[in-house]
Specification:
By secondary structure, this protein is mainly alpha-helical. The protein folds into two domains: about 90 residues, Orthogonal Bundle (Arc Repressor Mutant, subunit A), CATH 1.10.10; about 50 residues. The protein is built from eight helices and three strands.
């Protein structure tokens, strides 16, 4: 049996690729698909909620929402409690393929193998998944915060330099003796 890191990587990859395939079926990218999922499950939502949930900037969220709205998946509606704020709502008549079958099949497949576990094992699985989600959200938030704090020109130069060095290009700072 593989160690935990290998299994974690395999699980993560399988989940990402599944959601990429679903997003592709909808004509979306992964971030747009995740945003749509959040709006469908938790909506109506203010756009700011997507910023924190997806870990992307407000301007990136605007682009995501623009594309979802253009595709007919979401509507922007005024917040009845605060007219300055806009809420995102899933469209009743969303265009594109119906994914109910895909997710129904996923639910059936998951249910089939989950019936093999007893209550104690299911509790352990639930604990593992809940803690995995907590750890991933914490690290995602931290990475997003670090990226935001490193968005200045100095850090941009550092990132570009690291990419050049990783590609095997000469490090001009070292060649000048500084």
């Amino acid at each position: 049996m593989s160690d935990g890191a290998d299994l974690g990587w395999e699980l993560s990859t399988a989940i990402v690729l599944f959601h990429e395939a679903v997003a592709h079926r909808l004509g979306l990218n992964a971030a747009e698909h995740k945003a749509l999922g959040l709006i469908v499950r938790r909506g109506p939502l203010p756009t700011g909620a997507l910023t924190s949930e997806l870990g992307i900037s407000a301007s990136a969220v605007t682009g995501v929402v623009d594309r979802l709205e253009q595709a007919g998946y979401v509507r922007r509606t005024p917040d009845p409690r605060d007219r300055r704020r806009v809420l995102l709502t899933a469209s009743d008549t969303a265009t594109g393929p119906d994914l109910a079958g895909i997710f129904a099949e996923l639910g059936e497949e998951m249910g089939t193998f989950m019936r093999r576990y007893d209550e104690r094992e299911l509790a352990a699985i639930h604990d593992y998944i809940t803690n995995t989600i907590r750890v991933l959200r914490t690290l995602t938030r931290r990475l997003a915060e670090e990226s935001a704090s490193e968005s200045g020109p100095y850090h941009g130069r550092q990132r570009r330099r690291r990419r050049r060095v990783a590609r095997g290009e000469p490090d001009h700072r070292e060649s000048t003796g500084s």
